[in-house]
């Protein structure tokens, strides 16, 4: 009897979760607003360069800006600081100059073995959840480093648990001409807007957004 | 004084650095009319010894805050296939040779090099084919690179998130 009840309860929770996931993945919220907080995932090297170019085009309505970088990535930290300083210099009168840099362990180092990657990714997940929960951004922007998968999954969870619907925007790196990155393949199904920069990818993934080369 | 700038961005690309600083490569580069070679080696473990003779100078360093200056004074840039390095070089209108690092995951950088080569903006090769390419390439056939348009991104995003104009 208890088993039947437990099974029914588990079934109900599963159905509820599936419904929530479906609702969250399919809702595209266009409420008018004047500003929105943005969480930006900065991976190493070129990923950071590309994402800062994208950010450079965004107005100051995208504030405050929270950056998430891998804990071993000092280069990205200094690029971000220069970027924000330049921005503040160009627009001194603006009050929206707050930005924050958060650090989490990398999901995967370059050339790291796949079995160990499962563990390091789970560890990153464990640390991404409280971060996302604390920041509760309106929008998450990322472009492909492994670090972005735990972050986006955490953002999705926030929506599934009814805490907050976070808009997830993924821009595939300009390096990806014919095939998606691993992060891209995962997040293609989980993001609200999936942007590609070459026509071959738009053909393969018709649901993606193609705006030409944007970096 | 013609200058070649070699960059590996934030990565480690020992094969390229070793290849380009080998004595016969240095000779080749000098014979092509260059008198200065600058190596930006990133995280690499191969660290060639810098030197300066009457006719040729070799400089070596790991990182700088910005590579803009070195790209600007270069007459030729030899780079790994990282997006940042490629785009910065192409946007400065410098001739670019991209060397593919065959040891990277899925070799994802190869796609970009191939596409930009298809469009006539750069030459690409591997470490083993680099000397041959340097000898045979004609830099005057390279075409100008039109920069990307991030404003299309901001216009799109502003619309879908409901920001007031």
Automatic annotation (TrEMBL), chain A:
Q: Name the keywords, alphabetized.
A: Endoplasmic reticulum, Membrane, Transmembrane, Transmembrane helix
InterPro entries according to UniProt: Oligosacch_biosynth_Alg14
Supply the Pfam families for this chain: Alg14
How would you describe this protein's topology in the membrane?
A: Single-pass membrane protein
Where in the cell? Endoplasmic reticulum membrane
Question: Could you state one GO biological process linked to this protein?
Answer: dolichol-linked oligosaccharide biosynthetic process
The molecular function GO annotations come to: N-acetylglucosaminyldiphosphodolichol N-acetylglucosaminyltransferase activity; protein-membrane adaptor activity
Which SUPFAM superfamilies did the record assign? UDP-Glycosyltransferase/glycogen phosphorylase
Provide one Gene Ontology cellular component. Answer: UDP-N-acetylglucosamine transferase complex
Q: Which family does it belong to?
A: Belongs to the ALG14 family.
What is known about its subunit structure? Forms with ALG13 the active heterodimeric UDP-N-acetylglucosamine transferase complex.
What name has this protein been given in UniProt? UDP-N-acetylglucosamine transferase subunit ALG14
UniProtKB/TrEMBL annotation, chain B:
Give EC number(s), comma-separated: 2.4.1.141
The entry lists its GO molecular-function terms as: N-acetylglucosaminyldiphosphodolichol N-acetylglucosaminyltransferase activity
Outline the extent of the Glycosyl transferase family 28 C-terminal domain.
Answer: 4-143
Q: Which GO terms describe its cellular component?
A: endoplasmic reticulum
Q: What subcellular locations does the record give?
A: Endoplasmic reticulum
Q: Per its UniProt record, what InterPro entries does this chain match? A: Alg13-like (IPR039042), Glyco_trans_28_C (IPR007235)
Q: Which family does it belong to?
A: Belongs to the glycosyltransferase 28 family.
Protein name according to UniProt: UDP-N-acetylglucosamine transferase subunit ALG13
């Amino acid at each position: 009897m208890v088993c039947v009840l437990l099974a029914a309860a588990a079934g109900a929770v599963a159905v509820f979760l599936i419904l929530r996931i479906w609702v969250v993945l399919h809702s595209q919220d266009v409420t008018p607003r004047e500003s929105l907080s943005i969480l930006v995932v900065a991976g190493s090297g070129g990923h950071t360069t590309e994402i800062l170019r994208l950010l450079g085009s965004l107005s100051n309505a995208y504030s405050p800006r929270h950056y998430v970088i891998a804990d071993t990535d000092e280069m990205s930290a200094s690029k971000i600081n220069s970027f924000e300083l330049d921005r503040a210099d160009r627009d001194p009168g603006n009050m929206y100059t707050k930005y924050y840099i958060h650090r989490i362990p990398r999901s995967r180092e370059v050339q790291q073995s796949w079995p160990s990657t499962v563990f390091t990714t789970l560890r990153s997940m464990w640390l991404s959840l409280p971060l996302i929960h604390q920041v509760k951004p309106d929008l998450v922007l990322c472009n492909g480093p492994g670090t972005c998968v735990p972050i986006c999954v955490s953002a999705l969870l926030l929506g599934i648990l009814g805490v907050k619907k976070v808009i997830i925007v993924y821009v595939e790196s300009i390096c990806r001409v014919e095939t998606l990155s691993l992060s891209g393949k995962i997040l293609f199904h989980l993001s609200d807007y999936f942007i590609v920069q070459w026509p071959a990818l738009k053909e393969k993934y018709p649901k993606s957004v193609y705006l030409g080369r944007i970096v | 004084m013609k200058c070649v700038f070699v960059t590996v961005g934030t990565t480690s690309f020992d094969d390229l650095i070793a290849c380009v600083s080998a004595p016969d490569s240095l000779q080749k580069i000098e014979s092509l009319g260059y008198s200065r070679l600058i190596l930006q080696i990133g995280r690499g473990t191969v660290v060639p010894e810098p030197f300066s003779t009457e006719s040729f100078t070799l400089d070596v360093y790991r990182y700088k805050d910005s590579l803009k200056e070195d790209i600007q004074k270069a007459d030729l840039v030899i780079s790994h296939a990282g997006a940042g390095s490629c785009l910065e070089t192409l946007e400065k209108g410098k001739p670019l040779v991209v060397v593919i690092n065959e040891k990277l995951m899925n070799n994802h950088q190869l796609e970009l090099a191939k596409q930009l080569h298809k469009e006539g903006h750069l030459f690409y090769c591997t470490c083993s084919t680099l000397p041959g390419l340097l000898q045979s390439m004609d830099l005057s056939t390279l075409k100008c690179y039109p920069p990307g348009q991030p404003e299309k991104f901001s216009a799109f995003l502003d619309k879908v998130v409901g920001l007031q104009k």
